[in-house]
Design a protein that fits this description.
16 strands; Rossmann fold; 34% helix; alpha/beta; 317 residues; elongated
Amino acid sequence: MFRIGNSYLMEIVRVEHVTKQYAGHKALDDVSLAVPEGCVYGLLGPNGAGKTTLIRIINRITAPDSGQVWLDGRPLQPDDVYRIGYLPEERGLYKKMKVGEQAIYFARLKGLSRREATLRLREWFDRFGIRPWWNKRVEELSKGMAQKIQFIVTVLHRPRLLIFDEPFSGFDPINANLLKEEILRLKDEGATVIFSTHNMSSVEEICDHITLINRSHNILSGRVEEIRHRYGENLFQIDFLGDGESLRRELGERFGTVEGGEESSLYDSLRVRLDTPDRIRELLSLVNDRVAVRGFREIIPSMNDIFIKAVEGKLQI
């Protein structure tokens, strides 16, 4: 169970001490994590870190050498795959089949009747603007359009747990944004979403929690905003009107580290790195006495910065 503010969230997935080895390569080494129900959970890591292996274990495509996966508080069972929607990175459709018939075929494999599958598919095809392609052959589709079809058949049976492996790969910015909106909508409707990605901007936009896997180990887990603030460096930007050179000199004497801020045609900017956040009031008092302040904010590291530092071993975890 997770505590978020004054609320508690139940776990939907728990991975406990999972290890998996392939012919001399240890893909996962004693990995543990917990996924809260009703969140978007990002699995991050460089290529070969073990993300896809972990996803395949949760989907029961492969089994761990040791350790266990729990779903809803009990060990994962074979029938649980019907409660999961999985979009793998390696995607493929039958090229000679018509789009609509193929989508119905996949939907019926998930337990839907032909009538219910057709009704749901037409609703999704309208939402994605691809209804005119219903009777086209798959080989006539663009790569992006084929990926939309695969996304639809992944979510069509309304599973509680959705797992996407690099879902934004191959999408242009407009369609990637459409996919993000749909993922957030599915979350709002009660689904839990796990996805792996290299796109750090997507992590900041839609993820509630992340786990960073590197060299087969879980090296960092937590809520996105908490992680970003945890690894902040007490760096603050001041936007102002006034004597910048004099201010820089005095800040340097009092606080030590002063850098240039983001350029603006309206204001001057400086960044000050404090040795402790307890000195924020002291900093603001000095600045207010010397210049006209137009903005003051903490510079929080991006998930991309944190990812790079963690993988390079430059982050104290």
